[in-house]
Specification:
459 residues, 7 strands, five-stranded mixed β-sheet, extended, 9% strand, single chain
């Protein structure tokens, strides 16, 4: 009989500890390798060097393309002021130029701002006394002139445009108006302007919500912000002609329900596979830009070939569809290849067994989680192949929610919940105007005049 070696208990504990530390090291290396090209990390957290782009290089040269109309400063036929420059002095032959008749003019123009100052209009209401009964009568002032002295709708619109449209903090808005117009307004005045605009835009928000519910496809996303020092959440529901921003103290379903759009929506919601969105009653489409980034990370960082192959296959089928050359045979072959590669991903990332004496389910490998998601939500990932109105990615919501991120970085959070809600309503109005090709400036001035522009939400 051979001698059976007894296993040292200390050795077993050391091996288990080494395995645990190796797993922790792999996780830390994975975190160090993440950037905006292979994860959901925003570009602002990337290293100084530019990460790789998913866009394929085209044969076109940089700059304006052939046929592009271009923009340049044009000579105006109706200048506001003409300054004639007289020719004086003496010609080389001795003739005095002042005595010679003008035969032509050469013109040059300078396009500049006029002198900036407040334009003050004084309204004088006539007062009369009846010669028969002595009754005193007075003409009525316009509705927009309620007090003895006030600012007008353009200045109200200007301060709101700076704060909500361009995220300039209240204090700097007052500095700008003082420097440009000599108007020493206070932070409180700017805040009152914002609150007034929000009140008058309530009807717009109701129409916007009704218009969103009528769409076939909507995009959704969310991001964090601070309200009175506490974490709150911006939510966006949008499409090509309208944007709805809402603010809530929670990120989950309660916030979506409070917004009053997606919980009643029966069309397709495009999102980034956050689990809460799957509770919505409509159909789902997943953002494949997120999927491509996750596949790149598994391929290049974790050395999993199935992820690279799936990423390339997904890019090829998308570009074939985008160019209009996709055939039914190619589509069927892609579906088969998709399923094969997902199974390969599950095989490359086996189930992690429970750790003795550790509570809860064992954490699965990122590759397995992604492969399981591809298997479970295959129809939602590939819905863009079946419906022409469903996009490949969620870029519409990504672009719209980015403005909330810019606001957070430029001027921080909000002092109150009411201030955040007012910002969201006005920002929804601004974004919708931009999408419909209307002037934001004219729209804001009309709001303070008490007139709302007519907006259309049918695509």
């Amino acid at each position: 009989m051979g001698i059976q070696e007894e296993r040292c208990p200390n050795c077993a504990r050391l091996e288990a500890r080494i395995a645990e530390l190796e797993a922790e090291l792999r996780a830390l290396k994975t975190l160090l390798g993440l950037d905006s090209s292979n994860s959901n990390q925003p570009p602002s957290k990337d290293p100084p060097w530019k990460p790789k782009s998913e866009r394929q290089k085209s044969e076109r040269s940089s700059g304006g393309q052939k046929g592009h109309p271009g923009k340049t400063l044009k000579f105006s036929d109706q200048p506001d002021e003409i300054q004639t420059l007289p020719l004086t002095g003496v010609c080389s032959c001795g003739t005095v130029w002042d005595e010679v008749e003008v035969t032509d003019h050469l013109a040059r123009q300078v396009h500049d701002l006029p002198e900036l100052r407040l334009y003050i209009t004084e309204y004088q209401a006539e007062v009369k006394c009846c010669p028969n009964c002595g009754c005193r009568g007075q003409a009525a002032f316009p509705e927009h002139v309620p007090g003895q002295v006030q600012y007008g709708p353009r200045l109200h619109a200007f301060t709101t445009f700076l704060n909500v449209g361009h995220f300039i903090p209240l204090g700097r808005v007052t500095q700008i108006t003082d420097a440009l117009f000599g108007a020493s307004i206070s932070d409180g005045t700017v805040a009152l302007n914002i609150n007034l605009a929000s009140e008058r835009l309530e009807a717009f928000e109701n129409d916007l919500k009704a218009g969103l519910k009528q769409q076939a496809v909507l995009h959704a996303d969310e991001t964090g912000t601070k309200v009175n020092g506490k974490l709150n959440w911006f939510h966006v529901a949008c499409f090509a002609r309208g944007t709805l921003y809402t603010l809530h103290e929670k990120r989950g379903y309660a916030a979506i329900e409070a917004a009053g759009v997606l919980t009643d929506f029966r069309g397709v919601v495009v999102h980034d596979a956050w689990n809460t969105y799957f509770r919505l009653p409509g159909e789902h489409a997943l953002c494949n830009a997120h999927l491509l980034r996750e596949l790149r990370k598994l391929d290049e960082h974790d050395q999993q070939p199935w992820a690279g192959e799936l990423r390339r296959a997904l890019q090829q089928i998308y570009h074939a569809q985008k160019s209009g050359t996709l055939t039914e045979e190619q589509k069927a072959a892609f579906y088969t290849r998709f399923d094969e590669l997902v199974l390969a991903g599950l095989e490359a990332n086996p189930v992690q067994e429970p750790v003795p004496k550790r509570r809860g389910k064992p954490k699965q490998l990122p590759g397995r989680n992604l492969a399981l998601r591809c298997q479970q939500h295959r129809a939602a990932m590939l819905l863009f192949l079946e419906r022409a109105d469903v996009p490949f990615d969620n870029n519409q919501a990504e672009r719209d929610i980015r403005m909330a991120c810019v606001k957070r970085k430029v001027s921080g959070g909000f002092r109150s919940e009411a201030g955040g809600e007012a910002f969201c309503r006005i920002r929804s109005f601004i974004s919708t105007l931009q999408k419909q090709g209307l002037s934001v400036w004219t729209g804001l001035v009309d709001v303070f005049r008490g007139v709302l522009p007519k907006l259309h939400f049918s695509c």
